[in-house]
Specification:
512 residues; alpha/beta; TIM Barrel; Double Stranded RNA Binding Domain; eight-stranded parallel β-barrel; three-stranded antiparallel β-sheet; 40% helix; 19% strand; binds zinc ion
């Protein structure tokens, strides 16, 4: 296989993915995810939209500092101020990419941009020229490409390449395309644009009709050599194409899809679980590749076949995506060494401070719980949301039972310790009333409160997910603890902290 069959994996979990309702991540969470993406062999990490907010700027800058192998990309509209902000945020990166976009479909140009086509073309060229002053690695996206007229698309692509764009992304921004049609667009552009050999074409698909991975693969078959995707398929609306689906389809069907990527597929399960734990967004059990049931065989006939030969019903092995059942069980007598070994087995490599922190949380948990399972460890690794937050949990005591329910809660609010007692319809309601009492936020609704046991047993950790909504913005918080009430308070506080950060975001431009 030659270099021409190499597909560049452009991960946008931290940008397009992070924009999806409830998936916002704070700086430490983005850095944790970026390190995993870098380790697993992602070629380009799109880290955010630097002009959107101070938080996004700092996240892109932070990722630019910590990533060792991948190129780091920042998204920009066709505006000099956006491009300058990206260039500034990307400064620490070894390899930086500026990704600029503008809509090219008649619908978007008329109603969203209110610009005639010639002006759009000029703005695209100008943005690429500006971006090239900061880096040679410039990507240009024709937003809503799949609903753009062929002639205009070709004209824009040719001009973009001439202006210095090395990657041309033709996104199915609204998830409207079907595979044959999406492939035909790439074939058309490859046949008609004279300087197309000077750029790499890229796919970027959304899953509104469940076709994101199929469309991406169709585009690659037609000649695209970069795939934009996210872990678990998170992203705007129904999500982006899932990286694990694209990568594993190519790996499993080399006969039909003879392409290679740089992805270490054995890190897929760990990346998926870490992202779920960070965002509080669990994947559906029947999700391809990473769902809890993706490799489970329950029907008797299947099990019988599997016992005779795994290939009867399994087209790829659990080990190929890093799914393994470990027999190393941890408990309160497990020391640093066993804990480190366990983490390594699960695919986690922590720095010294992060390891000490995690080990302390592990010991605290092991004191309360006989056996600490893999799921518990993932939950406790994710439970580091208290850094740099406006609200911090200090202590909680709850009265429950048939004589009424109330909560005494202590929080740190903007550095000051505050305490209150509140009643409610049930202990959880009392806790949430106490939080509202200490930090009023009257415009916020609670559309979701969910508890599930991380593992079996009455000493299982409860994993609580809370979703808050305020004026169209949503934020998820998740926490695990052997005490359901403590987990509830923490999850609510995480969600509220995220919502407060979202209030800062000024630009709601969704991007390609
Ligand atoms: Zn998108």
């Amino acid at each position: 296989m030659s270099e021409k069959d190499r597909v560049i994996i452009f991960d946008t979990t931290l940008r397009d993915g992070e924009q999806s309702p409830g998936c916002s991540m704070h700086l430490e969470e983005k850095l944790r995810m970026a390190e995993i993406l870098d380790q697993m062999g992602v070629d380009v990490i799109e880290a955010g939209f630097p002009i959107a907010s101070q938080g996004d700027f700092e996240a892109v800058q932070g990722v630019a500092k910590c990533v060792k192998n991948a190129a780091v990309a920042g998204l920009c509209r066709a505006k000099a101020s956006d491009i300058e902000a990206s260039a500034e945020a990307l400064k620490p990166a070894e390899r930086k990419r500026i990704h600029t976009f503008i809509s090219t479909s008649p619908l978007h140009m008329k109603h969203k941009l209110q610009m005639p086509p010639e002006e759009v073309l000029n703005a695209a060229v100008e943005s690429i020229t500006t971006a090239r002053k900061f880096t040679d690695d410039v990507e240009w996206s024709a937003e809503d490409a799949t609903r753009t007229e062929d002639d205009f698309l070709c004209q824009c692509v040719e001009a973009a390449i001439k202006a210095g764009a090395r990657t041309i992304n033709l996104p199915d921004t609204v998830g409207y395309s079907i595979p044959e049609e999406y492939a035909a667009m790439f074939t058309m552009v490859l046949n008609r644009v004279p300087n197309i050999d000077k750029a790499i074409l890229s796919v970027h698909c959304h899953n509104d009709m469940g076709l994101a991975a199929a469309n991406s693969l169709a585009g690659i078959t037609a000649g695209a050599r970069q795939a934009e995707c996210t872990i678990n398929g998170i992203g705007e609306r129904a999500g982006n194409a899932a990286m694990e689906e694209i990568v594993m389809a190519m790996r499993t069907r080399q006969d039909m899809l003879p392409y290679k990527t740089g992805i270490d597929t054995t890190m897929i399960t760990m990346a998926s679980r870490t992202l779920s734990s960070i965002t509080g967004f669990n994947v559906q059990p029947n999700k391809a590749i990473v769902g809890a049931n993706a490799f489970a065989h329950e029907s008797g006939i299947h099990q019988d076949g599997m016992l005779k030969n795994e290939k009867t019903y399994e087209i790829m092995t659990p080990a190929s995506v890093g799914l393994r059942k470990s027999d190393l069980v941890l408990g309160k007598h497990s020391g640093r060494h066993a804990f480190k070994k366990k983490l390594a087995e699960m695919g986690y490599e922590l720095g010294d401070n992060a390891f000490q922190d995690a080990f302390k949380r592990f010991k605290d948990l092991a004191d309360k719980k006989k056996t600490v399972f893999d799921e518990d460890i993932i939950a406790l690794l994710g439970d580091d949301g208290a850094l740099n937050e406006r609200l911090k949990f200090i202590s909680l005591s709850v009265k429950a039972g048939s004589d009424g329910q109330s909560a005494i809660l202590e929080l740190e609010v903007d550095g000051a310790i505050k305490k209150t007692e509140a009643a409610g319809n049930g202990p959880v309601d009392a806790i949430f009333n106490a939080i509202r009492d200490l930090f009023p936020h009257p415009d916020t609704d609670l559309p979701l409160y969910q508890v599930h046991a991380v593992t079996g047993g009455t000493d299982a950790q409860a994993e609580v997910t809370v979703k808050l909504e305020e004026k169209g913005r949503t934020a998820m918080g998740q926490s695990a603890d052997v005490d359901t009430m403590v987990a509830s308070a923490r999850a609510y506080i995480y969600a509220l902290n995220k919502l407060l950060r979202k209030r800062e975001k000024s630009i709601s431009e969704p991007g390609p």
